[in-house]
Amino acid sequence: MTADDAIALLARKVAAASRLTVLTGAGVSAASGVPTFRGPGGLWRSFRPEDLATPEAFDRDPRLVWEWYAWRRELVRKASPNRAHEVLAAWSRRMRGFRLITQNVDGLHERAGTENVVRFHGSLWEVACRGGCAGAPRAWRYEQAFPELPPRCPHCGGLLRPGVVWFGEPIPAAALEAAGEAVDCDVCLAVGTSAVVHPAAGLLAAARARGAFTAEINPEATPATGAVSLAISGRAEEVLDAVERRLTAV
Ligand code: OAD
């Protein structure tokens, strides 16, 4: 199948779907200048997840972990949503049965205007009391730069932690529940994810098991590539733009 045929097929499937679920990963934000985790230039090439993205790493060296998150917050603050975010935002407003599940913590889907984003791994823009003190909400938005690192809980004076899901931690129950419903769909499309981190990586297979047409957009092959109904090798911002141009052509 040529690239054009693949894009035309995806556009037809998206147009015909009454329930479309899109699962996104770091590759969707690559064109915004936000580094991915794996692959060339990926964060996990220079940093080790066990030093920065686990509860144990935080308890060992909260300042180091916070410096890494504060650096990423500043990087993302200066970034803007790209064409991939914009197309998905347009679909969220236009398509009734559209659902977006993201592993990204950068908030760029929301900044592009996407409605009802299900965040699997939390948000860079939220914080929580590490000790889970009774005075504090479970997590809350905090978008300003921190006056000191590591930042302190305004309720108990203990440490704050980033409002993200670290390795070894459970996915928020509401996100898991929403994902369980979202895999009941006609089309399930994975965009810009290496499809290796579970449980997010299992959503495509779950959708397929329920009879969905499954598709992937990624410039590299992933463990999902051989299993989806349609794999499109390309960048999210270019492929989604091409699909959207077909959908909106008069
Ligand atoms: P990864 O960094 O693992 O994968 C990014 C994927 O995006 C790769 O497969 C790239 O080939 C692809 N990619 C790169 N540029 C792209 C582009 N312009 N368009 C489309 N795809 C592109 O990111 P995730 O799959 O999101 O979790 O990673 C999953 C989780 O692992 C993250 O949420 C994070 C990480 O460790 C935690 O921190 C808990």
**CATH homologous superfamily placement of the largest domain:** TPP-binding domain
How many domain units? Answer: 2
Distinct ligands, ions and cofactors found in the model? 2'-O-acetyl adenosine-5-diphosphoribose
* Sheet having the most strands: 6 strands, parallel
What does the average pLDDT come to?
A: 95
Number of helices: 10
Shape field? elongated
Strand order of the largest sheet: 3-2-1-7-8-9
Indicate the CATH architecture of the largest domain. Answer: 3-Layer(aba) Sandwich
Cα gyration radius (Å): 19 Å
The first-to-last residue Cα distance is 25 Å
Give the structure's gist in a few sentences.
The chain is 36% helix and 16% strand. By secondary structure, the chain is of the alpha/beta class.
Write up this protein.
The protein has 250 residues and is α/β, with parallel strands linked by helices. It has two domains: 1-33 and 81-121 and 171-250, Rossmann fold (3-Layer(aba) Sandwich); 35-78 and 125-164, SIR2/SIRT2 'Small Domain' (2-Layer Sandwich), CATH 3.30.1600. The protein is 36% helix and 16% strand. The chain contains ten helices and nine strands. Helix 1 (3-16) crosses helix 10 and helix 6 (83-94) runs parallel beside helix 10. The relative contact order is 0.20. The model has no long low-confidence stretch (mean pLDDT 95). The site of 2'-O-acetyl adenosine-5-diphosphoribose has 28 residues, from helix 10. The site of 2'-O-acetyl adenosine-5-diphosphoribose (OAD) has 28 residues, from helix 10.
